[in-house]
Design goal:
This protein is an alpha/beta fold and 410 residues long. The protein has 16 helices and 15 strands. α1 runs antiparallel to α2, α4 packs antiparallel against α5 and α7 runs antiparallel to α8. The protein is elongated and about 95 Å long. The relative contact order is 0.11.
């Protein structure tokens, strides 16, 4: 750097108003300074503005004098900090370090939660570059329906022990009633294109096979087998065959009645509306049944449904199924297949599910999210949502409430 130039950081705080940034930069423009960095945040109409610039040494005194006069006239505070060449070069070298996005999500977020999480980041040698709130303004009445809070941290560095950090965040998530996502901030995170959902206990708040079993009078028997399968204690295909056999003789009309009364999971309508609006391809990959998957496909405009087909003869279930069972392995294969068909890199895919048979596709996807999942699934997933509805997925994708609300309906 030329010996006749100086590096100066200015920090401005005060009541925000239109034209304030323009007034400051207008003064700088008179002296033909080079802006090296600039950042601004606004919290409850309180501005925090930082500008790092390079100027001629001969101009520095006049620049600071004019800025002080302007700050006094505007009723704002301004501070000046000289920056050495060494400090600046160290800052430039930070560009080579990894950047991550840590998303915190819950019905509410407290100082205790944020202190615990940021403490973990500090222990791992990660520096927080920016913090922003993704959810809308939070009402004081915590009893209001569908209240949620989400904060996104942009952090830089490389975790000293990534696995240990993940486990510590998971422990906090359970203890402090919050959800988190820790993702590498690369181009794939900002360009997700395909999302695959499990159906039962994910898109809908029931297991369809349990509903059918209740109508067939074998509810307890089927539920017991279902729970063992979802916990990963028995082979899925074997358990599926056993459960379907118990449905023999059930009338086909029962399926229509169940489909029309499916309990849709909180947040699904909002999530589907946004995903469709922003061009995502959506798939259901389910160990459940195509009949119910196709009902949801028609309801929400879903692009693909892969599930199991029950054999029906003369309007009655035979207790058998057609084709190969969609188990965990098949779900992962289908995710890759659809990605190929849609010409989407696997890193641009998302998978969401709750059971042990979802783990293969959660591991395969660029972003795997366990949703209100069994303990074994949460323990093996990189991200999980347990505190709010399925539209929490939007925050892990970086969507902001205010951004969505500007574009209608939400």
């Amino acid at each position: 750097m030329n010996n006749n130039t100086e590096l100066i950081l200015i920090r401005i705080t005060g009541l925000d108003r239109p034209g304030l940034t323009a007034s400051i930069t207008d003064i700088l423009s008179k002296y033909d300074v080079t802006i090296l960095d600039i950042g601004q945040a606004d919290i409850h109409s309180t501005l925090s503005l930082g500008i790092l610039f390079k100027s001629q040494e001969k101009d520095s005194g006049n620049i600071m004098k004019e800025l002080l006069f302007k700050a006094s006239a505007l009723g704002i505070n301004i501070r000046f900090y000289p920056v050495t060449v060494e400090e600046y070069e160290e800052w430039v070298n930070m560009q080579g370090k990894n950047r991550y996005i840590l998303t915190l999500l819950g019905r509410k977020l407290t100082a205790r939660q944020i202190a615990a999480v940021t403490g973990i980041l500090a222990e791992q040698g990660l520096n927080i570059d920016a913090i922003k709130r993704l959810t809308g303004r939070i009402p004081l009445d915590e009893q209001k329906a569908n209240v949620r809070a989400c904060i996104e941290f942009s952090v830089r560095g490389t975790p000293r022990q990534r696995e240990e950090m993940q486990q510590a965040l998971m422990k906090l998530s359970s203890e402090l009633e919050m959800d988190f996502s820790f993702q590498l901030d690369n181009m794939y995170r900002r360009m997700r294109r395909l999302i695959c959902f499990d159906m039962d206990s994910t898109l809908i708040q029931t297991e369809c096979i349990d509903e059918l079993a209740e109508r067939a009078g074998v509810g307890d028997q089927v539920r017991e087998i279902t729970e063992r399968a979802m916990r990963g204690e028995i082979d899925f295909i074997e358990s599926f065959t056993e459960r379907v056999a118990l449905l023999k003789g059930l009338d086909e009309s029962v399926m229509k009645e169940i489909a029309e009364n499916l309990p849709i999971t909180e947040g699904v309508e909002r999530l589907m509306f946004v995903l469709k609006r922003y061009g995502y391809k959506i798939a259901i990959l389910s160990g459940g049944f195509t009949y119910f998957g196709n009902y949801l496909k028609d309801k929400f405009g879903i692009d693909y449904v892969y599930a199991n087909e029950l054999e029906i003869v003369n309007g009655k279930l035979t207790g058998r199924y057609l084709g190969d069972v969609v188990d965990g392995k098949r779900k992962a294969e289908l995710l890759k297949l659809i990605a190929q068909v849609e010409r989407v890199d696997i890193a641009q895919t998302i998978a969401v599910g709750d059971g042990a048979n979802d783990l293969p596709m959660l591991s395969e996807a660029g972003l795997g999210i366990a949703f209100h999942a069994k303990p074994k699934v949460v323990a093996n997933a990189q991200q999980s949502i347990n505190t709010i509805g399925l539209d929490g997925v939007l925050y892990f994708l970086g969507f902001k409430d205010s951004y969505l609300e500007e574009r209608g309906k939400l």
